[in-house]
Structure formats: C-alpha cells, structure tokens
Amino acid sequence: QLRKCCGHPYLFEGQEDRSLPPLGDHVVDNCGKMILMDKLLKRLKARGSRVLIFSQMTRVLDIMEDFCRMRAYGYCRIDGNTSYDDRESSIEDYNAPNSSKFIFLLSTRAGGLGINLYTADIVILYDSDWNPQADLQAQDRAHRIGQKKEVNVYRFVTANSVEEKIIERAQQKLKLDAMVVQQGRLQEKQKNLTKNDMLDMIRFGADEVFRATDDSMITDEDIDAILAKGEARTEEMNSKLQAHDKGDLLNFKLDGGGCQVIDGVDYSKEKERMEEIKRLADLEFARTLADGMGKRERRTVIKADEPSAFKIKSKMKQLPKAMRLPRMDEWQFYNRRRMTEIHDIEVSAYELAKASGDAVDSTSMYLSPALQAEKEHLIQTAFGDWNKPHFFLFVKLLARYGRSNLAAIAREMVKPYDEVARYADTFFTRGSELTDWDKIRKSIEKGESKLLEIQRLADQTALKIKRYANPYDDLVINYQGKAGWT
C-alpha cells in the first residue's frame, strides 16, 4: 500500500473524481512523479530521444497509457498479459526506422528480459523492485547490440518515503552480491523482512508528509535542480556503502547491524588486536625470563658412534632395493607373517656381512637357496600388481555378474582370465582377512540375489510365452498399479 501511495493516488479506489474528464490534467497534477515525468518527457522529445518506462504495477501502466493519449505520444506496451504475437509486433514497430513510437511502456518483470530495444536511449524506472537485479535487467534493454547513443537512466524516488528504504536495501543487496556471491565464497539465503523492518519503513518520512504543503509546485526550472539533487543523493548512498568495505564481508548485514563485536571485543580490527596480544605476551615472557634465570643448559649432542632412532630408521632406507619388502596391502593377499620372517633373516645376514667388512653388493644373495626360492614363490603367488582401484572394480563386477561369470569380469577388467580366476579363488578363500569382509560379502550376495531374481523372471516369462502359438497377438500382460494398461 505504501508503494501505491508513491506511484499514483488513483491506484486507490474512490480517489479519482469521476466528474472530471478521464483524460484531463488532473491525472498529472495529482501525482508528483507524473508532474516531473511530464516536464521531463517534453524536454526529451524536443532533443529527439526515445524513452522506455518501467513500472512494477500494470495499473500504473494503465495510467501511463491515459497520459500518452493526453499528450499525443506514440507508444507501445508490454506486460504479463501481452500475447507473444503482440509482443513481437510491438518490438518491431518500436525499432522500425523512422518509427513514430516515442514511449515504450513495460512492466519490470515481463518486459525486463529477452527484449532488444536498442533504438531507445532513455530508461525511466518509475518505481523500484526489491530485487536490484530486476532493475538492472530492465536497464539493459537499451544497452543492447546496435545501440549508437549514450543511454541515460532516470530512477523516480519519492523523497522521505518507503521508496528510499527500498533503494537503500537494493544497493546493499548489490554490494552483498559483489562481495560474496560473485566471488563464489558464500551463497547466503535471501533474508525476509522482519516486523521491525516493516515498521521502520512505515514510520520513515511520516513527519515530512504531515508538514508538506500544497505550494510546492514543480516548474520547468526545477527539473535540473531535482536531477542534480538526485545525483547527489546517489553519490551519498554509494559513499556510505563504500565506507564499510574493509572487513565488511563478515560484518555485512542488510539490517545495518554487525556480528564482529562479541563480548565487547571488536573482531573487525583483528590485525591490531593480534599485535597487541603479541606485544603483551612478549612482555610477560621477558619478565618471566628475568625472574627465573637459571644456569645455562646445553642441548644433548648425539655422537656419530652412538646408536639413535634416527640412525636405525636410516638403515631401513639404506637397504638394497631387492631386499626391501613390498607394500603388501591386504587385498594383494601376501603371506605377511612368512614374508616378514624371511626378510628379518635376510637383513640380519646383510648387516653381518657389512659389519665384517665384506663387499656389500645389492645383487648378492644373503638367503639360502631354499629360502630364496620360498621368497620368490610367495611373491609370485600374491597379487602385487593389483592396486586398490582393481580391487574395488573386482568387487563391483562380482556383484554385477556373479562369481560364476568370471569371463565377463576378466573382460571388464582387461586382465587374463587365468589371473582373475586365481584371484577369485584366493579372494573367497582368504576374504575373511579383509577389514570390511562382512560388508563386501553382503554387497556381493545382494547383487547375486538380484541376478537370481532376474533369471527367475526371465524363465517364467519364457514359460508363459511358450503357452501361446502366437504370443504377440494372444498374450495379454496386466501391469500392476497401472489401471487400464494392457
């Protein structure tokens, strides 16, 4: 209702004097915005400009149509009730060379998208949307390919009214979009107006309304002053928003509050606060050091001939590559216990040979032939080249094809059939050694149960088809849950 007050008094039932002619000057004189627009349009038409007028309300557009007829301005109109054919025809008429159409009336939501009106160079936003992106889209109707003139945008705002609050919140939303959403760091859910927000907007400017008089008529000389005042107010609002740029990402709220002052501590000045904390900590440390100064203690130095954990760890890294144990992940099914025993024997022989001064050769054999053969056999019977993705794929294919269809599994894994068959045999024999064996086994059994059910349905279907000499014509299938389907 407050926005209707700013739009035009005739938006309220009973305000228009029906005894006056419908297209009389009272349509203009009873609304401040209409008075300003009437004088502005005369100036724009005299200099050869063409105008787009956007409004949120179709009833405002109805009043605009009466105004255009009064002043004999050629116009087109698009709103939510305009058909596609009329929409395209209006756009073509307006953009046609030497068109007689001076004004294009559009609703912000219906006419703000998908329209190219490059022949216009003036955009008038008669009222503003809560969503600033809608107004930006409306302005872009003139900023299209083919535009050859400088485009000017005029936004009509009733002073000391709810419209000032709408513009203020719209600018804050644009700033929030620039700071947060477009940088991809946070997507904040749209916040609805609270009861207090609405009450503040209703009360805003009430004193100015009650103090207003009827002698404030706008003259032709006042237009430049009004436009200059509007530019000054816009600059003032932008400056106010830019003043809070630093550290405002965490502290930004549409209601003007803040969230960086907690328990009396201003966290927006984090750098200064941390510097002060560091200074006090250094001061306390120096005081403690001066009070408790004791005798100097030297760090323990480990000599080269003394054993240490670092040296023991280094020895493991210095073993010849042929002697190092493989990773032995659980899905590779190594005999870990026996491999570790043989490795310990080999390392002991290697260390003994090295300590006695014998030449250490990485190709030397430090195991007996029997142990060396056993080690090679353990490595060959394991699956050292099966990595984790191979293991997961094998389990997934077991659930899809079943354990009896190893040929399909080998084909999907691009591995030899004999290798896959040997792995499957080891898998089901030693599967209980795996950490998640119960979970893996259940997933495989669930997949195999589905395969059995599919096979059962296929057998039943084949058996039923055999009962008919001409199943394509005689067989009728009733679909469960689909009444009338056969």
From TrEMBL:
Domain Helicase C-terminal per the UniProt entry, residue ranges: 36-187
Domain of life: Eukaryota
GO cellular component terms attached to this protein's record: chromatin; nucleus
Single GO term (MF): chromatin binding
Lyase recorded as keyword: no
A GO BP annotation: nucleosome organization
Transmembrane segments annotated in the record for this chain: none
One Pfam family from the record: Helicase_C
Keywords carried by this UniProt record: Hydrolase, Nucleus
Subcellular location: Nucleus
InterPro entries: Helicase_C-like (IPR001650), P-loop_NTPase (IPR027417), SNF2/RAD54-like_C (IPR049730)
Family as reported in the entry's similarity comment: Belongs to the SNF2/RAD54 helicase family. ISWI subfamily.
Protein's recorded name: Helicase C-terminal domain-containing protein
